[in-house]
Specification:
The active site is at residue 75. The protein is α/β, with parallel strands linked by helices. It has a domain at 65-213: Rossmann fold, CATH 3.40.50.150. Helix content is 31%, strand content 27%. The protein has eight helices and nine strands. The chain has helices spanning 3-7, 19-31, 37-45, 54-57, 77-88, 104-112, 123-135, 172-176; strands spanning 66-69, 72-74, 94-98, 115-120, 141-145, 158-163, 178-189, 193-201, 204-213. The termini are far apart. The model has no long low-confidence stretch (mean pLDDT 93). The site of S-adenosyl-L-homocysteine has 24 residues, from strand 2, helix 6 and strand 4. S-adenosyl-L-homocysteine is lined by residues 68, 72-75, 98-99, 101-102, 104-105, 119-122, 125, 147-149, 164-165, 216, 218-219.
């Protein structure tokens, strides 16, 4: 188990079931090329099934994206792991996620990054995500109802920003809210999307393409 998780008193007393299923998922992630032991520990530890509606919970550890209601989806474990691994390369102290959805990716970040913020545009999803995060006692993760196109100005700058819904182009506010030396990861595009890493070096943007992906679109506004 990651040192952080072992030492984190928040995790005491939470009896997680389905450990064997999670261990199999972690083994598969290793085979798929995930190397960061902290990321593997976090995914091996967090109860992914609690982030899904009961009817789908039994499929939580499959190698697939799953619906979380209101037309939204929780990414497959590999994508969550890969994006987290890429983000950790800059050793972020403060991270922002755009698109909290079920709250799973935010919880993963919460195991690995001291301070995590995540914004979501759909209040119904946000409320559920919030109670999951609270039940897991991840007090370093805070969720906020907002249109992620504008980031979270009052908490900027962030060392890392993870966008989990696809904009056609990178919203300029997000890059502006990235700290110097920070990293932003986002799926960019419409029908064809590319997962991109943007690094901020001397105020300049360095861009790297990672892989073709498929995320739900980043939509404008919020819905109560
Ligand atoms: N990261 C999530 C899955 C994300 S699905 C998880 O771990 O479960 C993408 C999410 O982005 C959806 O919940 C969708 O409502 C949200 N979203 C889309 N456009 C948004 C915007 N402009 N601002 C904030 N959230 C947005």
């Amino acid at each position: 188990m990651a040192e952080f998780l072992r030492l984190n008193p928040q995790f005491k007393g939470i009896g997680f079931t389905s450990q064997r299923t999670r261990d199999r998922m972690v083994k598969r992630l290793v085979e798929q090329g995930i190397k960061n032991p902290q990321v593997l520990d976090a995914l091996g530890y967090l109860p992914r099934h609690l982030f899904l509606d009961e009817a789908l919970a039994h499929r939580a550890y499959e190698d697939t994206a799953l619906p979380i209601g209101l037309g939204q989806t929780l990414s497959q474990p590999y994508i969550v792991a890969r994006m987290t691994e890429l983000l950790l390369e800059v050793e972020p102290k403060k991270a922002l996620e755009i698109g909290a959805g079920s709250g799973y990716q935010a919880a993963v970040l919460g195991c690995l990054v001291p301070e995590v913020w995540s914004v979501e545009r759909l209040e119904a999803l946000l409320e559920k995500a919030r109670s999951r995060i609270k039940n897991l006692k991840l007090s370093n993760v805070r969720l906020h109802l907002a249109d992620g196109h504008y980031g979270l100005e009052r908490e900027a700058p962030f060392d890392a920003i993870l966008v989990t819904a696809a904009p056609k182009q990178l919203p300029p506010n997000l890059f502006e809210q990235l700290a110097e030396g920070g990293r932003l990861i986002a799926p960019i595009g419409d029908e064809h999307q590319m997962l991109r890493v943007y690094d901020k070096r001397n105020g300049q943007m360095l861009q790297t393409d990672i892989a073709a992906v498929r995320f739900v679109p980043l939509l404008p506004g919020t819905e109560k």
